[in-house]
Amino acid sequence: MRFSRVVFVAAGIWGVLVVFPLYFLEATINQQQPPPITHPEFYYGFIGITVVWQILFFVISRDPVRYRTITLVAILEKLSYGLAVPLLFAAGRVPVVAFVTGLPDLVWATLFAIAYWKIPVVDS
């Protein structure tokens, strides 16, 4: 269970460090990656829901056995971005910088899957 705890704490820390600063970078992103963001509600909504997921990772890390099933949903959360961005890149719809930002999510999805299999199954 130590592996699972470490993985989910590390994922939460990583996510907060990578995502939270986006709250303050809208103007920079608008300038460096045109066109400017036209729907800020989607931009800030994405950041907000992503930060909430990081909090969930911290919750899972506190009691991996209790939250083992939620680990499966956490894997899907990582795959939803981690697979979408490379597919969009392959279709020529996003730049290489977006492609690179999706790769860590694939690593986290893999680590979450390993953690899931290492968490003991407890009968209720």
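(ticket continues) Second input and output from the same batch:
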Amino acid sequence: MLPFISSAFAQDASGGSAASAQIMQFLPLVLIFVVFYFLMIRPQQQQQKTLKAQIAAVKRGDRVLTAGGIVGVVQKVRDANNELEVEIAPNVRVTVARDTLSMVLTPQVPAAANDSK
């Protein structure tokens, strides 16, 4: 009768728990997801958060890049309707929605650098 015993039954009869075996199978998948989250998803979320804060803090004189690839200098901020007036060439101004900005090009000067004159 021993030759007819299945190998699955023989492995289970050795004392191994089926629940722990299933957990051990899914552990690598969970580990891959955790590494993927910390290496790719979380940094991208932080970058989007800082970009959103920079776009919300745009003021007159900042150089900006639109989603269409236009680089210009902000001349007027209209907070009521979420628009900016951007000068893209001398005496050429266009109205741009704030949501279409893809980058703020003006480097932010730290407060400590201003104090050390």
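Agent notes: Residues 7-52 form one domain. The chain has two domains: 7-52, 59-109. Closing as not reproducible unless the customer responds.
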